[in-house]
Specification:
The complex is a heterodimer of chains A (about 110) and B (about 120). Chain A has no helices and eleven strands. Chain A has about 110 residues and is mainly β. In chain B, the strands form two sheets. In chain B, strands 2, 4, 5, 6, 9, 10 and 11 form a seven-stranded mixed beta sheet that branches. A four-stranded antiparallel beta sheet of chain B has the order 1-3-8-7, with no helix packed on it. The chains are: A mainly beta (about 110), B mainly beta (about 120). At the A-B interface, strand 4, strand 5, strand 9 and strand 10 of A face strand 5, strand 9 and strand 10 of B.
Chain lengths: ~110, ~120
């Protein structure tokens, strides 16, 4: 079992739809949870960053963390064609040996059609 | 303020050759991490450097090495290139290692093709 599981999609939705992207994880030591957006042939761009369980909202984006279920979600309201990209969930734990690395899901490809 | 920069953007090498990739972190950031992203996969951790010291290493062979300079820029070196090393190599920088200051910001990547 991989540490972080994410459905690769593609997920196709019409413009204006609400999009739900999800990841599950197995390592209960993960402390920080991120969503990155990656356009084709570009580097990942940080969208949302959360630490505790609960919801965090930023504009059209809402990140949700449920540590008890080891499940995180990203919701996109009023989706736009410019949201078409791959969305990567990432999780971070600070290792006792003194470093802090990200573990990523495979990414979900989102296609928003006009 | 400039983001993370990486050079070169693209590179084509042949098997057995050596490659050096370069990264400049966001100004003020002390930590640099390197990741390898193969097509269709999420990035995989290679190294993390903080204050010029290696702090962590992922599950990559000894052909991969890196260093961080006094100005916090970094180089990733890969020796004896294999076809399987073809990937997007990403550099990420963070202010620090811990807490919210450990949040990592990525550069555009260097796309390496090994023939």
């Amino acid at each position: 079992q991989k540490e972080v599981e994410q459905d690769p999609g593609p997920l196709s939705v019409p413009e204006g739809a609400i999009v739900s992207l999800n990841c599950t994880y197995s390592n209960s030591a993960f402390q920080y949870f991120m969503w990155y957006r990656q356009y084709s042939r570009k580097g990942p761009e940080l969208l949302m960053y959360t630490y505790s369980s609960g919801n965090k909202e930023d504009g059209r984006f809402t990140a949700q963390v449920d540590k008890s279920s080891k499940y995180i979600s990203l919701f996109i309201r009023d989706s736009q064609p410019s949201d078409s990209a791959t969305y990567l969930c990432a999780m971070r734990v600070h290792m006792n040996s003194g470093y802090s690395t990200l573990t990523f899901g495979k990414g979900t490809m989102l296609l928003v059609s006009p | 303020d400039a983001g993370v920069t990486q050079s070169p953007t693209h590179l084509i090498k042949t098997r057995g050759q050596h490659v050096t990739l370069r990264c400049s972190p966001i100004s003020g950031h002390k930590s640099v991490s390197w990741y390898q992203q193969v097509l269709g996969q999420g990035p995989q951790f290679i190294f993390q450097y903080y204050e010029k010291e290696e702090r962590g290493r992922g599950n990559f062979p000894d052909r991969f090495s890196a260093r961080q300079f006094p100005n916090y820029s970094s180089e990733l070196n890969v020796n004896a290139l294999l076809l399987g090393d073809s990937a997007l190599y990403l550099c990420a920088s963070s202010l620090d290692l811990w807490g919210s200051e450990g949040t990592q910001y990525f550069g555009p990547g260097t796309r390496l093709l090994v023939l």
